[in-house]
Amino acid sequence: MAWRVEILNDLVAAEIAALPADMQARFMRLAERISAAGLESLGEPHVKHLEGKLWELRLTAETA
Asked: Helices (DSSP H) in the chain: which residue ranges?
């Protein structure tokens, strides 16, 4: 099954754009992995299945 990652709306796009560069890059890498292999292939700590079709994408910042 092919996956497609979509941004919900302009507000969400703005929130992603406001993230630090490292977190934006991490989001893009995870979105590419989701598109290629699906949510189930990532697993925790990257994504968590909440219920039904609802999943949580977990982004963490680099620590110094």
From this structure: 10-17, 21-37
